[in-house]
Amino acid sequence: MPHISDNLVNLLYLFAAALFILSLKGLSHPRTAVRGNFLGALGMLIAVVVTLLDRRIVSLEIIVAGLVSGSLVGAVMAYKSPMTAMPQVVAIFNGFGGGASALAVGAAMMELLHLEEGLDVQFTSAALVSGLIGGVSFTGSLVAFAKLQGLMTEKPVLMPGRHALNIALLAASLLLGVWMMLDPSTSLTYWAMTIVACVLGVTLVLPIGGADMPVVISLLNAYSGLAAAGHGFVLNNSVLITAGSLVGAAGFILTVIMCRAMNRSLANVFFGGVGVVVSTGKDEEDAYAGKVKSTTPEEIAMLLDGARRVVIVPGYGMAVAQAQYAVQDLTSLLEKRGVEVDFAIHPVAGRMPGHMNVLLAEANVPYEKLKEMDTVNPTFRNTDVVFVIGANDVVNPLARSADPSVPIAGMPILNVDEARTVVVVKRSLSPGFAGIANPLFAADNTLMLFADAKKAAADLVAAIQQTG
After folding, report:
1. pLDDT in tens, 293-323
2. How many CB atoms lie within 10 A of CB 84?
3. Are 423 and 387 a contacting pair, CB within 8 Å?
4. What's the confidence (pLDDT) of residue 400?
5. What are residue 55's phi and psi, to 5 degrees?
6. Which among 250, 386, 381 has a CA at the least distance from the CA of 315?
7. What's the distance, Cα to Cα, between the start and end of the chain in Å?
8. Residues 235, 287 within the same domain
9. Beta bridge pairs of residue 449
10. Domain total of the chain
11. Cβ atoms within 10 A of the Cβ of 443, count?
12. For residues 140 and 95, is the Cβ–Cβ distance under 8 A?
């Protein structure tokens, strides 16, 4: 394998870092997201190739075997994972990234100790950061994946004394890390610290319910970036430091944005336990009081006959039913009849940031039709019909309550109840991730269409076509 000069290596690393920054810039808007993704992949390809040419880390055979096996696994996952499973894919990738950083740092430490080379303060402090954060990211992401995939309950798992346990595990990890820095003569303390951090990752994420999983995934993504940056300091690899820092910073910024969108602090997300209290039958009976009005596609078709403006609010139910294509067919049909159609996107709709945007983009819904909450909320008063397709908590009027016992109190919502008519497409009256009833379902201007989102959209298209 040829060796290239240090100046050329640094120049190419700088070029790769610039591509990473341009990638993040592109990913900030749906229209440029594909280009941003390509630039990021190109930057990482350049970084990997330069690193392999710069020094012979392992034999060429092992490198090729790793590339082939990793590419095969990635290709199979990309091909078989539906768009509705993207949150799980992101979660597991976060975990793999954090775990890889922790393992690589441990391997580097063992190699240096085997060569009887001393470990300086930069190495051991960076190893502490990478092992601690990487371990938490690895197992925390696995728990998030299991919750999202349905392998375990999405409800919070509340263990007695969990806060004291988490504090004890964190303290133990830090003490082991300090011990490693004071006595870097063995790698055992590093591995012990990483194992304790892995346990901490499990105990941190178990008590968090499905409603908060988008925020958790974003934060774990930031953790995996910080673990990679620590790994970069261990290896003195500038491009790894840059890439990890960018991922960490972007993840934390996104986490803060999502917390603001939910009007909750990060501490409340981790310790508040949204979804702990699940609504009972009595809660639903009090909220609905027999006022729920069921409807049919034919009745909705007649309702739409004189409509001028329609807003569609997508939610996780649309994702589960994979109804984005049927919804796009409904949109196209309404627009042919002269109806103005927009989509109202809540920042935390679905199970990950941008979940609804990705699904609708897959169905070729124009970006201009995707309206953010602050933009679309003032327009609901001038909207004839709002279709709420599989959404629940993000349109729940109880969020306006000042009652602290309401889990979503204070969370900004889409003010769909201000429209002339609201049509909620849902399979049942079951609560959303927050576990509370939704008074919108029993509002005077609300009609409930009980059906699978995909079938409901298809039936609506057929009913509208029959009306001429």
Report:
1. 888 988 888 888 888 999 999 988 888 888 8
2. 18
3. yes
4. 83
5. -150, 145
6. 386
7. 70
8. no
9. 425
10. 2
11. 17
12. yes
Q: Both 158 and 306 in a single domain?
A: no
Q: Are strands 385-389 and 446-450 parallel, antiparallel or unpaired?
A: unpaired
429 against 284, higher pLDDT: 429
222 & 93 share domain: yes
In angstroms, the CA 45 to CA 37 distance is 12
Residue 73 lies in a domain: no
Cβ–Cβ under 8 Å, residues 207 and 159: yes
Report d(CA 341, CA 248) in Å as an integer: 37
Do 123 and 252 reside in the same domain of the chain? yes
293 and 217 part of one domain? no
Same domain, 364 and 339: yes
**Is the same domain home to 317 and 371?**
yes
Q: What is the pLDDT of residues 184-198, one digit of tens each?
A: 888 899 999 999 999
Domain-terminating residue out of 220, 238, 272? 272
444 catalytic residue (yes or no): no
Strands in 309-314's sheet, in edge-to-edge order, are 370-372, 340-345, 309-314, 385-389, 421-426, 446-450
Q: How confident is the model at residue 289 (pLDDT cuts 50, 70, 90)?
A: low
Q: What is the CATH number of the domain that holds 301?
A: 3.40.50.1220
Where is the domain boundary, 254, 272, 290? 272
Rounded distance, CA 465 to CA 46, Å? Answer: 53
Asked if 230 and 325 sit in the same domain, the reply is: no
Amino acid identity at 85: A
Q: And the tokens for 193? A: 């610290």
Instruction: Give Cα 442 distance to the centre of its chain.
Output: 31
Please report, for residues 148, 258, 306, the alpha-carbon distance to residue 220 in angstroms, rounded to integers and kept in the order given.
Answer: 14, 14, 48
Q: Under a CB-based contact definition with an 8 Å cutoff, are residues 208 and 141 in contact? A: no
Catalytic residue among 212, 393, 417, 452: 393
